Amino acid sequence: MVGDADPLGKLLKKIKPSYKVTKYLEKLIENEPCIKRQFVPTVEELDICSEDLIDPLEEEEHLVTSKCVHKYPDRVLIWCTNVCFANCRFCTRRRYIKKRETTITDTEVDKIVEYLAEHQKVRDVILSGGDPLILNNSQLKSILTKLRKVESVKIIRIGTRAPIVFPKRITNKLVSMLSKFKPLYMNIHVNHPAELTDEVKHACDLLADNGIVLGSQTVLLKGVNDNQEVMRDLLQKLLEFRIRPYYLYLADRVQGTRHFWTEIEDGRKIIRFLQGTIGGLSLPKFVRDTAAGKIHVV
After folding, report:
1. pLDDT digits (tens), the chain, 298 positions
2. Model pTM above 0.70
3. Could you tell me if residue 51 is inside a domain?
4. Which of 237, 188, 186 is nearest to 216 (CA)?
5. Structural domain tally of the chain?
6. DSSP SS3 for 287
7. First and final CA of the chain: distance in angstroms?
8. Is residue 63 in a domain?
9. What's 34's domain CATH number?
10. Does the residue 28 lie in any domain?
11. By the 8 A CB rule, do 158 and 127 touch?
12. Beta strand pairing status for 213-220 and 244-250?
């Protein structure tokens, strides 16, 4: 970050969401430019055009309660909190990430449970946010307990970056509690092989050893992982950590994130390269997320 006495430093302070990382992440940022780029604000975020979108996936158009998005027939997404352990500069929900923390209330969870009971085609629930692992173990247990009482809900997924940016959050107590709600899936957001440290390996082993199924979600980011060899190394290392590569996303066209955008053809070239160099188990689905849903890019 630029010093506060510098005019540029004052300008960066105005950029939202604010700069936020864990102490663990601070050490990685010092030595890894591709991690630094993901988390440290730059003036490039002020490059905004009229066609840039605040809510590119139109999630708020599909809210069925104040915290529940029902966009696909068989699954819903729950906003558990509006904060993360670290603020990614390319976040799709920049509009939603606030400095002041708010978490889902018991009343809001009860409304979602009522909705699910009335809409039995929904069998898959995704806990998202912000980062749902910001919630303490008791809060998470309460939510999971209520969801498991809905007979039509068969699958529960947790979308998180906690194992990557704050691996100490993955404790024996947390994992012991989560393991009681299987089948439980955890989609971990990972963008660069340098993020997969020994500490992350320990956290993932703890989860996998206790029956939590791990998958990855990766965003194709200019200057971070838009490189064939980097992407190959990431995907191969993910499997070593027992994380199954799931999605490779084209970066969402969110206001203030143009410097991260790549073209669809950039992703196609990487996928074509990967198809000839790594096994199918390592190969993610390349998709573009849109207001109408995910589009598989072939």
Report:
1. 444 556 556 666 778 888 999 999 999 999 999 999 999 999 898 887 767 777 878 888 999 999 999 999 999 999 999 999 999 999 988 887 766 778 999 999 999 999 999 999 999 999 999 999 999 999 999 999 999 999 999 999 999 999 999 999 999 999 999 999 999 999 999 999 999 999 999 999 999 999 999 999 999 999 999 999 999 999 999 999 999 999 999 998 998 899 999 999 999 999 999 998 999 999 999 999 887 788 888 7
2. yes
3. yes
4. 188
5. 1
6. strand
7. 39
8. yes
9. 3.20.20.70
10. yes
11. yes
12. parallel
State the alpha helices, DSSP H only, in the chain.
7-13, 23-31, 33-39, 106-118, 137-148, 162-165, 172-178, 198-209, 228-240, 264-275
Residue written as token pair 């838009």: 226
Query: Looking up tokens 């027939």, which residue turns up?
Result: 73
Residue 11: inside a domain: no
Q: The tokens of 263 are what?
A: 């073209």
Site of tokens 């898959």: 124
**Sole residue written with tokens 């012991």:** 176
Report how far residue 298's alpha carbon sits from residue 286's, in angstroms, rounded to the nearest whole number: 8
Residue type for 214, please?
L
Residue 238 sits in which domain range?
17-296
Q: How far apart are CA 265 and CA 49, in angstroms?
A: 22
